[in-house]
What does this fold into?
Amino acid sequence: MTPRRLGPTSLIRLLGAWRGDRPGPAYRQLADSLRLLILDGRLPLDVVLPGERELAQALEISRTTVTAAFAHLRDEGFLDRRQGAGARTRLPSGPGERGAASVSGVGVDGILDMTSAAPPASDRVHPAYAAALSQLPAHLPNHGYATLGLVELREVVAARYTRRGLPTQVDQIMITNGAQHGLALLLRLLAGPGDRVVIDHPTYPHAIDAIERASCRAVPVGLPAEDWDVEGLAAALRQSAPRLAYLIPEFHNPTGRWMSSAARTAIAAAAARARTTLVFDETLIDLWLDRPEAPYAFDDAGAELVRLGSMGKSFWGGLRLGWIRADAQIIQALALRRASIDLGSPLLEQLAACHLLADDEPALGERRDLLRHRRDHLLRLVRTRLPDWRVRSPPGGLSLWAELPAPVSSALAATSERFGVRLAAGPRFGVDGAFERFVRLPYTLSPGDLDQAIDRLAEAYERLRPGASPARASVGAVV
It folds into this structure.
């Protein structure tokens, strides 16, 4: 298969303001920016970059600068140069792979990884697996496939919705391999190439990836200072005729905000008028830190409202389980589409999930206590070590959304890795290069790791100031 080639115009748009007042040679700044695009997924793998002469002309820099940047990336393992075939993007391989990280958040290369807002497993996960193993023999005489999911788990999930104020029947639930899998299935069922999908902006980056992989077009609606832009969403629904609207109303990723009851009611009504399927991603609904979990704020809007849930953030990402709550007809249609991709979720994990959800409050209470302590610790660190960054205390969720004094998010993410911190730049959470003034800071690492991460991040940020001396730090020097 012929590899995809990226034109210089597209690459320049992705690079954005790659060269500013940062210290260091231009080739290094260009290499850092390209490496960041590869690491955070904005520049896909196995893509052929423009030629050195072509890119140099487009960037209005010398060819020597581009040649040196490409050579640096090849040495690091991020480009594969083949004679006559151009420079192709890749990731380093082997035990020192730069993308690898341990459970503690410290990568095998000694870098503290702040790109993932995912806490470690709850202490109750292992006992749940042990109980699931004891139940597994009863299921072994069956074939083990269940496209909709294990009936017992669907009943537990339905009862959970009902208990929280949203009456739900088992035929309204499908078990999936996580909420991301659920979104991909919905896109496959309800949208097609070229269709529009309204999103809040910023949003979960892998949701943007799923929309793009379905060949759909994301229609972003910015978040105001407080709550959601109801009028903006209503206008987007009315004017762009989207097939779906994907929103994160509970402890939004990455901002941590909570959608008000009035906004929910108005948005649901606007989606119904536009005949747009409204998808609420409720992955983080369990992780309230300052306020008790609120009941559902309005009656279910029939077939036009779909909810995504997940075990990952509440208990452990390794469970790889989630669910879709929707009208029974949508669930049946999803089951037919799913059969062409996979035939169901792993049985052992579903049995473990039954045990975790049957009495979930003790585990969730422990998780909230842990996250509340780490959130407050990170807030103190940022306000002390990075006082010109603006951070709010989110009422829940897993991260701070920090506003920087200048649009240097991508530059900071590229620089910080040399100081031992891997960071997701703000544009990863948006489209068309937005959010260069923002960076997401998860508080899922241990307090000790957060101490080190913010110290290193403050040092990296200092290097971006005009007149700062060139960075000499390396991963080995800061571990």
The first strand starts at residue 4 and ends at 5. Residues 400 and 441 are 5 Å apart (CA to CA). Residues 94-104, 469-479 have pLDDT under 50 and may be disordered.
